[in-house]
Specification:
The complex is a heterodimer of chains A (116) and B (117).
Chain A lengths: L3 E3 L3 E4 L5 E7 L5 E8 L3 E8 L6 E2 L6 E7 L2 E6 L8 E8 L11 E2 L3 E5 L1
Parallel strand pairs in A: 2-11
Antiparallel strand pairs in A: 1-3, 3-8, 4-5, 4-9, 5-6, 7-8, 9-10, 9-11
Chain B lengths: L2 E3 L4 E5 L4 E3 L2 E3 L5 E8 L6 E7 L6 E3 L2 E6 L4 E6 L8 E9 L9 E2 L3 E6 L1
Parallel strand pairs in B: 2-12
Antiparallel strand pairs in B: 1-4, 3-9, 5-6, 5-10, 7-8, 8-9, 10-11, 10-12
The chains are: A mainly beta (116), B mainly beta (117).
Chain lengths: 116, 117
């Protein structure tokens, strides 16, 4: 059974704290993604990575950074958490293109982060 | 610009009714891929279907069917004889096939489906 695992289901942090959200996949996927999900806004891409040590900004990278030191692990870092970063964070992974096109992404269970 | 629009924010039906979830997309590319995902109350997105822009054949999988029409840029999803377990948020997504995209998914805002017994 394919799996994307996020380290925490629920997290409460204080404003100004540095926060690490961890994601591990066991499918040997090249691509990994971090999305943020907010009511009425759907899923928005924060960062993605298509290889170890590679990263690309998504649509809303401000206030976030990422790290990918190993193929199976992709970390999202909130440098100084703020209340407007309270959200559901979803990690996903996918393999490299198939049939010359992008493949389906597999998602983790999500981390609901509350910043107080 | 790439964009996915799911105009229906919430839909409520009674069990055994058929229901169609609409998805309209915009893309600058001639080659692209469309997806549907289901997000049950547990929160994890579940992949339902992947379709490329060259394949306009409709697809049926059990009670689920998808209607892809390039002429109207739509990729609608129908659930036949809905069940309570179908209650979830459904997302339509678009991915373009050009260098640099690496399979990024552009999501619609989702349609929340409630199926009442």
């Amino acid at each position: 059974d394919v799996k994307v695992t996020q380290s925490s289901r629920y997290l409460v942090k204080r404003t100004g704290e540095k926060v690490f959200l961890e994601c591990v996949q066991d499918m040997d996927h090249e691509n990994m993604f971090w999305y943020r999900q907010d009511p009425g806004l759907g899923l928005r891409l924060i960062y993605f990575s298509y290889d170890v040590k590679m990263k690309e900004k998504g649509d809303i990278p401000e206030g976030y950074s990422v790290s990918r030191e190993k193929k199976e692990r992709f970390s999202l870092i909130l440098e100084s958490a703020s209340t407007n970063q309270t959200s559901m964070y979803l990690c996903a992974s996918s393999s490299a293109f198939r049939d010359r096109g992008p493949t389906e992404a597999f998602f983790g269970q999500g981390t609901r982060l509350t910043v107080v | 610009a790439q964009k996915v629009t799911q105009a229906q924010t919430e839909i409520s039906v009674v069990e055994k009714e058929d229901v169609t979830l609409d998805c309209v997309y915009e893309t600058r590319d001639t080659t692209y891929y469309l997806f549907w995902y289901k997000q049950p109350p547990s929160g994890e997105l579940v992949f339902l279907i992947r379709r490329n822009s060259f394949d306009e054949q409709n697809e049926i999988s059990g009670r689920y069917s998808w209607n892809f029409q390039k002429s109207t840029s739509s990729f609608n999803f129908t659930i036949t004889a809905s069940q309570v377990v179908d209650s979830a948020v459904y997302f339509c997504a678009l991915s373009e096939n050009y260098g640099g995209s690496q399979g990024n998914l552009i999501f619609g805002k989702g349609t929340k489906l409630s199926v009442k017994p």
